[in-house]
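Hey, I'm writing a tutorial for new members on how sequence and structure tokens pair up, and I'd like a real worked example in the thread rather than a made-up one. If someone can provide the structure for the chain below, I'll link this post from the tutorial.
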Amino acid sequence: MPRGRYSLHDPHDHTPLAEENFHCAPGPSGWRYVSQVTTPSGDPAGSVDLALDDLGRPIRLELHAASWQVRGAALDGVTWVRTDPTGTHATEGNVRAHAFTGTSPAFLIATARLLRLTPDSSATRVRLVAFTDPVLAPRTVDQSWALIKREAHATDNDPLTVDEYQVTALDTGEQHTVHLSGDVVLSAPGVELEDLESPPSTFS
């Protein structure tokens, strides 16, 4: 069960935004990721609880940020309920999309798990509902993912397999690179892996 800490920063000017202390693990029915998010000064800023089924679909999502809350799942596309800080207003949403995304590195793992690309695969289009900080406002985004290369790196223990993805935002054409190993993000725009207590899990 990997445990560790990501630092999140603005990908353009590198302003520190948050730290995310996480643990995650595959299980008999899929994969789960749980984290606590803090501000750069250490104050609580939210949490992430994401569970995927064995096909990589989100069977449960719970996000907290700035007293806002989102609960969602894959149902007729993806469905969610967003609740305001007072708890008096809840709005439901539904979009014909494949999965969710957001600022947490968990969503990069989840999308890669859903697509199951190989280096021989062509670029694959995916529609996601993104929840944007700080109020978890939903918006639909279309991306293209391609697995550019897969390399094994020698370590003191077993070889570490690293996948390099090219992700393209289809509305702007902006491209960026994401490096994943199992269920851990090694690097991505705005994401740095600061600490990892145990090796990444490998998916079958």
